[in-house]
Amino acid sequence: DITHLPSTQYVNTKSTLDSEDKDHLLHRSFIDPPSLVERAEGVNLFLSDGRKIIDACAGAAVALIGHGNKEVHQAIVNQLQKVSYVHTQSYTTQPAEDLANLILQGSPHGLEKAFFVGSGSEAVESALKLARQYYFEKNEPERLHIISRRQGYHGNTMATMTISGNLGRKVPFEGFSYPHTSQVSPAFAYRYMQEDETEMEYTPRLLREIEDEFLCVGPHKVMAFIAEPVAGSGIGSATPPAGYLAGLRALCDKYGVLLIFDEIMCGVGRTGTFFAFEQEGNAVPDIMTIAKGLGGGYAPISGVLVHKRVVDVLRHGSKAFNHGHTYQAHPTSCAAALAVQKIILRDGLIARCAAMGKILESMLRTELRDCWSVGDIRGRGLFWTVEFVKDKKTKETFDPRIHFGARVQQAAFDEGVALYPCSGTVDGKRGDHVMLAPPFIITEEELSTVCKVLREAIESQQ
Ligand code: PLP
Q1: Tell me, what DSSP letter sits at residue 39?
Q2: Same domain as 270, residue 387
């Protein structure tokens, strides 16, 4: 029984072991075997038992242009026919160069270099090592401390798990962590903005707490502040209060701390602009990470994007980034991502995401208006979260043993709609939410089906 855990990604709705568990593949849960997918096309997954599922969360906010795109398939095949792998120590390939150039054409916001790896965790880990090397070369070796936010999520490797806030993922790994970290409050108005507080008061309160943390650690020891501009899986698509990201930028400038934005989930158009931070004034990070929508799921790929001021220190210092992976800038992944990004540009999919996002918001607000357990509906672009509470007024969470969110998710799945698993933490306990992050090609009719199924799934819990 894992229900005592404050929060976990492994939400088992069943309680007995599957006696038929003979698979050699280690699945996430020993109790709930995953569904076997035979084929996927557009927004739909086709399961081996004949069922069709609308992928209303694009996997994990990944399949941004939908599944089964033949142009991407062809780009992958073309690349494989040319070169499937070379080591980046000695070689580069055209798709890697072209992908970096496409994303950073004209150095948007001063972001000048891209470094491609395989997963989100690797990208964040690389960003942290880059930040460390930056200070090492600037002769500020005492800067080792990373400040992140409770309920943030930055990955599952040792360092990235340490700076993440999802308590359930950490339980077995106490002591297995990067030592120089601390956490401050998330920017999460629904839960933590006080009743008698305005947004104009909430933002400075959050920023004061961060400045206090800088001062408490010793500003000369702080290496980086890391945050998701629009929070992802830990809280569920929570947008920051007005002025928060700009305030973060100003604080980091004041104390010479690097600002890292983790846009692995919210970037690449998911919130309606290529970078999520673009909707928050002039808060440009020093280093940022992107991943899921970059390759759209056609191949594993993530990116670290680096501002010129960081690049310059290495360029004029050691003249190398002392970090690398065997599969860095993998040609097939870069070719897939390049094809995905070209499709997004050609078909105006980010503008479509913004427009469809408005439709989804209005459908959610209408459809779920009378659901007693829906405490909050929040998000931006095609990135929306529905949070469930036992009591709308007090915002009291359900007993974690009820698995309310997981049950809604399962009920929706049974009716043919896949939602993103809920794994949030509220005040140290597991909170309940489901996330919607469909492919940008989803139609209004499909969104309407998704919202109706979600309402029925919620109502079936009463
Ligand atoms: N950072 C954020 C914001 C994420 O949402 C995720 C994954 O969900 C990660 C990092 C880790 O990425 P990965 O699972 O590819 O290692």
Answers
A1: E
A2: no
Q: What is the CATH number of the domain that holds 155?
A: 3.40.640.10
| Residue 60 and residue 76 share a domain | no
| Residue 227 and residue 158 in one domain | yes
Task: Lay out the sheet containing 417-418: strands in order across.
Answer: 37-41, 44-47, 52-55, 417-418
Q: What is the pLDDT of residues 86-145, one digit of tens each?
A: 999 999 999 999 999 999 999 999 999 999 999 999 999 999 999 999 999 999 999 999
Q: How far apart are CA 234 and CA 286, in angstroms?
A: 23
Q: Which atom of ligand 1 is nearest to the CA of 289?
A: 1
In this structure, how many other beta carbons lie within 10 angstroms of the beta carbon of residue 189?
A: 20
Domain stops at, among 346, 372, 389? 346
- 9, 64, 153, best to mutate for ligand 1 pocket (most atoms within 8 Å of CB): 153
> How far apart are the C-alpha atoms of 96 and 292, rounded to whole Å?
17
Question: What residues flank ligand 1, with Cβ below 6 Å?
Answer: 60, 119-121, 124, 153-156, 228, 232-233, 262, 264-265, 291
Ligand 1 center to residue 266 CA distance, Å? 10
- Least Cα distance to 442 among 383, 385, 397 occurs for 383
Is pLDDT larger for residue 178 or for residue 16? 178
Q: How many domains does one find in the chain?
A: 2
Cα(404)–Cα(317) distance, rounded to whole angstroms?
Answer: 54
Supply the pLDDT for residue 7.
42
DSSP string, 211-244: HHHHHHH-GGGEEEEEE-SS--TTTSSPPPPTTH
Does the residue 257 lie in any domain? yes
Predicted ipTM? 0.99
2 pLDDT exceeds 80?
no
* Tokens (6 digits) for 407: 């049950």
Within its chain, how far is the Cα of 44 from the centroid? 22
Query: Can you point out the beta strands (E) in 78-164?
Result: 111-117, 145-149
pLDDT in tens, 159-187: 999 999 877 778 888 889 999 999 999 99
Structure tokens at 113: 């270099």
Among 346, 377, 412, which residue terminates a domain? 346
Mutate to test the pocket of ligand 1, among 64, 161, 264, 304 (most ligand atoms within 8 A of CB): 264
Q: Which domain holds residue 297?
A: 70-346
Residue with the smallest CA separation from ligand 1 atom 1 is: 154
What is the rounded average pLDDT of the residues 187-209?
Answer: 96
Q: Rounded to an integer, what distance in angstroms lies between the CA atom of residue 435 and that of residue 433?
A: 7
Residue 177 CA to residue 159 CA, distance in Å, equals 6
Residue 166 has what pLDDT?
78
